[in-house]
Amino acid sequence: MNEKKSINSSEQAKAFIKTAKVQNLISQIVAFKSQKKSNKSLGKEIEDLEKFIQVDRQLLSKKITEMIESKSMFVQLKLQPSKLMRKKIELLQEAESVQEKINQIDSNIEITKQYLESEEQTMKQNDEQIQKLNNKINDNQKWLQQIRVIQASQN
Length: 155
Fold this sequence. Notes:
The chain has helices at residues 2-17, 20-35, 39-154. By secondary structure, it is mainly alpha-helical. It starts with a helix and ends with a helix.
């Protein structure tokens, strides 16, 4: 990032030097030196021009900094849609996985209900058979008791 910043700053500084305003200032400085004005007035004009250039350099530096910050923010914003799409895909995959688990649980619930119904039916049949056997045993005991009574009366 710093290399990019220095490259951009260097390119922008070169472009700044090529502007008509700066070229004009350079021409004036050269003209002043060639005219050999008095050292005092030439020094004062050069000092004024240097101050003017310094102010322009500060403005340029500030604008370059703002441009770099803006570019950085733009790059981050440019990446945002792809980040959001990746997150959406992850969530959709997660939702699909959760739905598969829900379907499996629903299937297990249905199998368990069917098993319970089957067991209830088996228990009902077993209860009926036990009741029938109990009734048969009771009937056989009554019949055996009647036979004993008859046998005891014959003796």
